[in-house]
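Raw record, unedited: ATP-binding cassette domain-containing protein
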Amino acid sequence: GRVIEVKGLTKRYGGVLAVSDLSFTVRPGHVTGFLGPNGAGKSTTLRMILGLNRPTAGSATVHGVPFPAHRAGLRHVGALLDAGDAHPGRSAAAHLTALARSNALPRRRVDEVLHEVGLAGAARRRVGGFSLGMRQRLGIASALLGDPPVLLFDEPVNGLDPEGVRWVRGLFRRLAAEGRTVLVSSHLMSEMENTADRLVVIGRGELIADESLAEFAARG
Ligand code: ADP
Ligand code: ADP
Protein backbone atom coordinates (compact mmCIF):
# COMPACT_ATOMS: atom_id res chain seq x y z
CA GLY A 1 0.00 0.00 0.00
CA ARG A 2 2.71 2.59 -0.54
CA VAL A 3 2.01 4.29 -3.81
CA ILE A 4 4.14 7.38 -3.35
CA GLU A 5 7.37 6.91 -1.41
CA VAL A 6 9.63 9.85 -0.55
CA LYS A 7 12.98 8.92 1.04
CA GLY A 8 15.60 11.36 2.27
CA LEU A 9 14.40 13.79 -0.37
CA THR A 10 16.52 16.95 -0.50
CA LYS A 11 16.57 19.94 -2.83
CA ARG A 12 19.01 22.82 -2.72
CA TYR A 13 18.63 25.96 -4.84
CA GLY A 14 22.03 27.62 -4.51
CA GLY A 15 22.22 28.52 -0.82
CA VAL A 16 18.55 27.75 -0.15
CA LEU A 17 17.70 24.35 1.30
CA ALA A 18 14.14 24.09 -0.05
CA VAL A 19 13.56 20.44 0.97
CA SER A 20 15.66 18.72 3.62
CA ASP A 21 15.90 14.96 4.16
CA LEU A 22 12.15 14.49 3.78
CA SER A 23 10.64 11.00 4.09
CA PHE A 24 6.99 9.98 3.95
CA THR A 25 4.66 7.62 2.11
CA VAL A 26 1.23 8.15 0.61
CA ARG A 27 -1.28 5.31 0.45
CA PRO A 28 -4.29 4.71 -1.78
CA GLY A 29 -7.87 5.19 -0.69
CA HIS A 30 -7.17 8.29 1.38
CA VAL A 31 -6.96 11.99 0.83
CA THR A 32 -3.56 12.88 2.23
CA GLY A 33 -3.10 16.56 3.05
CA PHE A 34 0.33 18.11 2.52
CA LEU A 35 0.36 21.06 4.90
CA GLY A 36 2.95 23.77 5.45
CA PRO A 37 3.35 27.56 5.30
CA ASN A 38 4.26 29.33 2.07
CA GLY A 39 7.87 28.59 1.19
CA ALA A 40 7.91 25.34 3.21
CA GLY A 41 8.86 23.28 0.15
CA LYS A 42 5.52 21.75 -0.87
CA SER A 43 5.64 22.65 -4.57
CA THR A 44 9.28 21.64 -4.84
CA THR A 45 8.42 18.25 -3.31
CA LEU A 46 5.45 17.71 -5.65
CA ARG A 47 7.62 18.65 -8.65
CA MET A 48 10.25 16.11 -7.58
CA ILE A 49 7.58 13.40 -7.18
CA LEU A 50 6.53 14.20 -10.75
CA GLY A 51 10.10 14.12 -12.04
CA LEU A 52 9.96 17.79 -13.05
CA ASN A 53 12.70 18.77 -10.59
CA ARG A 54 15.78 16.67 -9.94
CA PRO A 55 16.48 15.96 -6.26
CA THR A 56 19.83 17.08 -4.84
CA ALA A 57 19.71 13.88 -2.76
CA GLY A 58 17.25 11.15 -1.88
CA SER A 59 14.43 9.81 -4.00
CA ALA A 60 10.74 10.05 -4.76
CA THR A 61 9.04 7.07 -6.37
CA VAL A 62 5.53 6.31 -7.63
CA HIS A 63 4.66 2.59 -7.63
CA GLY A 64 8.29 1.86 -6.85
CA VAL A 65 9.92 3.71 -9.71
CA PRO A 66 11.08 7.31 -10.13
CA PHE A 67 8.47 9.13 -12.14
CA PRO A 68 9.77 10.94 -15.19
CA ALA A 69 6.80 13.07 -16.22
CA HIS A 70 7.76 13.15 -19.89
CA ARG A 71 7.59 9.36 -20.24
CA ALA A 72 4.86 8.09 -17.94
CA GLY A 73 2.15 10.57 -18.86
CA LEU A 74 -1.30 11.44 -17.65
CA ARG A 75 -2.61 7.88 -17.46
CA HIS A 76 -0.35 7.23 -14.48
CA VAL A 77 -0.28 10.42 -12.47
CA GLY A 78 -2.48 13.50 -12.84
CA ALA A 79 -1.41 16.80 -11.33
CA LEU A 80 -2.59 20.33 -10.79
CA LEU A 81 0.61 22.30 -10.31
CA ASP A 82 0.10 25.85 -11.43
CA ALA A 83 -3.30 27.24 -12.34
CA GLY A 84 -1.62 29.54 -14.84
CA ASP A 85 -0.03 26.99 -17.16
CA ALA A 86 -2.61 26.93 -19.98
CA HIS A 87 -1.89 29.17 -22.99
CA PRO A 88 -4.09 32.29 -22.55
CA GLY A 89 -5.00 32.46 -26.24
CA ARG A 90 -6.39 28.94 -26.36
CA SER A 91 -9.87 27.78 -25.48
CA ALA A 92 -10.31 25.37 -22.57
CA ALA A 93 -11.36 22.64 -25.02
CA ALA A 94 -8.35 23.25 -27.28
CA HIS A 95 -5.99 23.11 -24.29
CA LEU A 96 -7.41 19.77 -23.14
CA THR A 97 -7.61 18.38 -26.67
CA ALA A 98 -3.89 19.05 -27.18
CA LEU A 99 -3.13 17.35 -23.86
CA ALA A 100 -5.33 14.39 -24.78
CA ARG A 101 -3.61 14.05 -28.16
CA SER A 102 -0.07 14.18 -26.77
CA ASN A 103 -0.99 11.51 -24.20
CA ALA A 104 -2.86 9.27 -26.68
CA LEU A 105 -6.11 9.68 -24.74
CA PRO A 106 -9.53 9.39 -26.39
CA ARG A 107 -11.04 12.69 -27.52
CA ARG A 108 -14.26 12.00 -25.57
CA ARG A 109 -12.33 12.44 -22.31
CA VAL A 110 -12.16 16.18 -23.06
CA ASP A 111 -15.93 16.59 -22.91
CA GLU A 112 -16.17 14.26 -19.92
CA VAL A 113 -13.70 16.21 -17.79
CA LEU A 114 -15.03 19.62 -18.87
CA HIS A 115 -18.41 18.42 -17.64
CA GLU A 116 -16.96 16.91 -14.48
CA VAL A 117 -15.30 20.20 -13.42
CA GLY A 118 -18.24 22.41 -14.38
CA LEU A 119 -16.62 24.08 -17.40
CA ALA A 120 -18.76 22.57 -20.16
CA GLY A 121 -20.41 25.96 -20.77
CA ALA A 122 -17.03 27.73 -21.02
CA ALA A 123 -15.34 25.11 -23.23
CA ARG A 124 -14.91 27.47 -26.22
CA ARG A 125 -13.85 30.54 -24.27
CA ARG A 126 -10.23 31.68 -24.17
CA VAL A 127 -8.38 30.71 -21.02
CA GLY A 128 -6.93 34.25 -20.84
CA GLY A 129 -10.39 35.51 -19.85
CA PHE A 130 -10.87 32.90 -17.11
CA SER A 131 -11.02 33.77 -13.41
CA LEU A 132 -8.48 32.09 -11.13
CA GLY A 133 -11.22 29.70 -9.98
CA MET A 134 -11.96 28.71 -13.58
CA ARG A 135 -8.25 28.19 -14.26
CA GLN A 136 -8.08 25.96 -11.18
CA ARG A 137 -11.03 23.95 -12.52
CA LEU A 138 -9.25 23.63 -15.88
CA GLY A 139 -6.08 22.47 -14.11
CA ILE A 140 -8.13 19.90 -12.22
CA ALA A 141 -9.68 18.79 -15.54
CA SER A 142 -6.14 18.27 -16.90
CA ALA A 143 -5.28 16.14 -13.87
CA LEU A 144 -8.42 13.99 -14.38
CA LEU A 145 -8.02 13.64 -18.15
CA GLY A 146 -6.05 10.39 -18.13
CA ASP A 147 -8.25 8.84 -15.40
CA PRO A 148 -5.05 8.20 -13.38
CA PRO A 149 -4.77 6.17 -10.15
CA VAL A 150 -2.53 8.82 -8.56
CA LEU A 151 -3.45 12.50 -8.32
CA LEU A 152 -1.46 15.46 -6.94
CA PHE A 153 -3.07 18.84 -6.35
CA ASP A 154 -0.97 21.87 -5.39
CA GLU A 155 -3.07 24.50 -3.56
CA PRO A 156 -6.23 23.58 -5.52
CA VAL A 157 -8.54 25.74 -3.42
CA ASN A 158 -6.83 29.05 -4.28
CA GLY A 159 -9.29 31.23 -6.17
CA LEU A 160 -12.31 28.95 -5.74
CA ASP A 161 -15.51 30.40 -4.29
CA PRO A 162 -17.21 28.60 -1.36
CA GLU A 163 -19.33 26.50 -3.71
CA GLY A 164 -16.17 25.55 -5.62
CA VAL A 165 -14.43 24.61 -2.37
CA ARG A 166 -17.30 22.29 -1.44
CA TRP A 167 -17.25 20.79 -4.92
CA VAL A 168 -13.51 20.12 -4.89
CA ARG A 169 -13.69 18.51 -1.45
CA GLY A 170 -16.40 16.17 -2.69
CA LEU A 171 -14.31 15.37 -5.77
CA PHE A 172 -11.26 14.46 -3.66
CA ARG A 173 -13.34 12.26 -1.36
CA ARG A 174 -14.88 10.48 -4.33
CA LEU A 175 -11.46 9.94 -5.98
CA ALA A 176 -10.14 8.42 -2.72
CA ALA A 177 -13.27 6.28 -2.30
CA GLU A 178 -12.56 4.88 -5.77
CA GLY A 179 -9.23 3.68 -4.38
CA ARG A 180 -7.08 6.36 -5.95
CA THR A 181 -4.13 7.98 -4.22
CA VAL A 182 -4.79 11.69 -3.62
CA LEU A 183 -2.22 14.17 -2.27
CA VAL A 184 -3.46 17.75 -1.74
CA SER A 185 -1.24 20.63 -0.62
CA SER A 186 -2.33 23.69 1.30
CA HIS A 187 -0.88 26.35 3.59
CA LEU A 188 -4.14 26.45 5.63
CA MET A 189 -5.07 23.89 8.28
CA SER A 190 -8.70 25.00 7.96
CA GLU A 191 -8.74 23.72 4.37
CA MET A 192 -7.60 20.30 5.51
CA GLU A 193 -10.26 19.83 8.17
CA ASN A 194 -13.05 18.67 5.87
CA THR A 195 -10.81 17.32 3.15
CA ALA A 196 -7.93 15.15 4.36
CA ASP A 197 -7.89 12.06 6.57
CA ARG A 198 -4.11 11.99 6.87
CA LEU A 199 -1.65 14.85 7.11
CA VAL A 200 1.96 15.22 6.12
CA VAL A 201 3.12 18.48 7.66
CA ILE A 202 6.33 20.26 6.65
CA GLY A 203 8.09 23.45 7.71
CA ARG A 204 11.31 24.89 6.24
CA GLY A 205 11.63 21.80 4.07
CA GLU A 206 11.57 19.38 7.01
CA LEU A 207 8.98 16.85 8.14
CA ILE A 208 7.02 18.03 11.20
CA ALA A 209 4.25 15.41 11.38
CA ASP A 210 2.89 12.43 9.48
CA GLU A 211 -0.28 11.17 11.12
CA SER A 212 -4.06 11.07 10.98
CA LEU A 213 -5.90 14.37 11.05
CA ALA A 214 -7.41 13.42 14.44
CA GLU A 215 -3.96 12.74 15.95
CA PHE A 216 -2.59 16.03 14.61
CA ALA A 217 -5.59 18.00 15.89
CA ALA A 218 -5.37 16.33 19.32
CA ARG A 219 -1.74 17.44 19.73
CA GLY A 220 -2.70 21.04 18.89
P1 ADP B 1 5.76 26.04 -1.01
O1 ADP B 1 5.21 25.32 -2.19
O2 ADP B 1 5.60 25.29 0.27
O3 ADP B 1 5.27 27.45 -0.91
P2 ADP B 1 8.24 26.04 -2.53
O4 ADP B 1 8.56 24.63 -2.79
O5 ADP B 1 7.60 26.83 -3.61
O6 ADP B 1 7.35 26.13 -1.19
O7 ADP B 1 9.55 26.81 -2.10
C1 ADP B 1 10.45 26.32 -1.09
C2 ADP B 1 11.68 27.22 -1.02
O8 ADP B 1 12.44 27.05 -2.21
C3 ADP B 1 11.37 28.70 -0.92
O9 ADP B 1 12.36 29.30 -0.12
C4 ADP B 1 11.47 29.16 -2.35
O10 ADP B 1 11.80 30.53 -2.42
C5 ADP B 1 12.58 28.28 -2.88
N1 ADP B 1 12.46 28.01 -4.33
C6 ADP B 1 11.43 27.37 -4.93
N2 ADP B 1 11.66 27.25 -6.27
C7 ADP B 1 12.85 27.85 -6.49
C8 ADP B 1 13.64 28.05 -7.67
N3 ADP B 1 13.25 27.62 -8.87
N4 ADP B 1 14.82 28.70 -7.53
C9 ADP B 1 15.22 29.11 -6.33
N5 ADP B 1 14.55 28.96 -5.19
C10 ADP B 1 13.37 28.34 -5.27
P1 ADP C 1 -20.73 6.96 -13.01
O1 ADP C 1 -20.62 6.46 -11.59
O2 ADP C 1 -22.14 7.32 -13.40
O3 ADP C 1 -20.00 6.15 -14.01
P2 ADP C 1 -18.54 8.74 -12.81
O4 ADP C 1 -18.47 10.18 -12.40
O5 ADP C 1 -17.86 7.73 -11.94
O6 ADP C 1 -20.06 8.40 -13.00
O7 ADP C 1 -17.91 8.59 -14.28
C1 ADP C 1 -18.34 9.41 -15.35
C2 ADP C 1 -17.18 9.58 -16.31
O8 ADP C 1 -16.15 10.30 -15.66
C3 ADP C 1 -16.58 8.27 -16.77
O9 ADP C 1 -16.26 8.36 -18.13
C4 ADP C 1 -15.32 8.12 -15.96
O10 ADP C 1 -14.29 7.51 -16.72
C5 ADP C 1 -14.95 9.55 -15.66
N1 ADP C 1 -14.35 9.65 -14.35
C6 ADP C 1 -14.90 9.34 -13.17
N2 ADP C 1 -14.06 9.55 -12.18
C7 ADP C 1 -12.95 10.02 -12.73
C8 ADP C 1 -11.70 10.42 -12.23
N3 ADP C 1 -11.43 10.38 -10.95
N4 ADP C 1 -10.78 10.84 -13.08
C9 ADP C 1 -11.04 10.89 -14.35
N5 ADP C 1 -12.19 10.52 -14.89
C10 ADP C 1 -13.14 10.08 -14.12
